[in-house]
Amino acid sequence: MRIDFVTLFPGMFPSVMDASMMARAQEKGLVSWGCVNPRDYALDKHKKVDDRPFGGGPGMLMMAEPLGKAIESIKKKKSKTILLSPQGKTFNDKTAARLAKEEHLILVCGHYEGIDERLAPLMDEEISIGDFVLTGGELPAMLVADAVARRVPGVLKKEDAAGSESFASGLLDFPSTPGREFGAAARFPRCCSRATTRKSPNGGMTPPRPRPSASVPICSNGRNKRRQERSV
Length: 232
Ligand SMILES: C[S@@+](CC[C@H](N)C(=O)[O-])C[C@H]1O[C@@H](n2cnc3c(N)ncnc32)[C@H](O)[C@@H]1O
What we know:
two-stranded antiparallel ribbon; 6 helices; five-stranded parallel β-sheet; elongated
């Protein structure tokens, strides 16, 4: 999969996109990424990329021509162009899994008050990462890229790793702990000691902590991984 970010701030990306799982995904040749800067397509010598909204109003918009040209410079037949916007559809695991099947994602990072509305036809969809407003689309775009990349087959070490994570089958991941004790704070819960593991109703897994704000139930039986099907 190829992920291109259309951004006025390409310097924000390498520390996230070249670290950890993303670095390994690139080493394996499964994911590659790049940035295109609308400023490189600016029309004047000052490299201006903002514009006043027609009819007034507070703030500036991303100027249509540089942004449009930047997108068109990388858009191919099979590209999926996504605008990051607080007005988009809220991102979730289902969307991540769907987008992981794409060959080429173009993630358009807005800035100022957003993009010139006339560019809307260039977008295939609009994604929000939640009901709050950030300064730019760069953090939302990297969040989407990370969640999508870990759903690309082969990126995670174990083939079914993404499938057993929270939300994948409608439940939160079951709690776990390494098989080592250290200090009073890291004692095993009673249910997990060797003596009680067999008798434990959840097969010796760490018991779930209550999570009052969770939107989906927690998988309490890690051993059997019996997960009820429920769409999230
Ligand atoms: C300051 S925001 C613009 C907010 C816009 N005027 C509004 O009220 O809906 C600038 C850019 O940040 C990005 N952004 C901010 N919050 C976001 C969110 N919750 N989800 C996705 N993108 C967001 C978008 O790309 C947006 O164009």
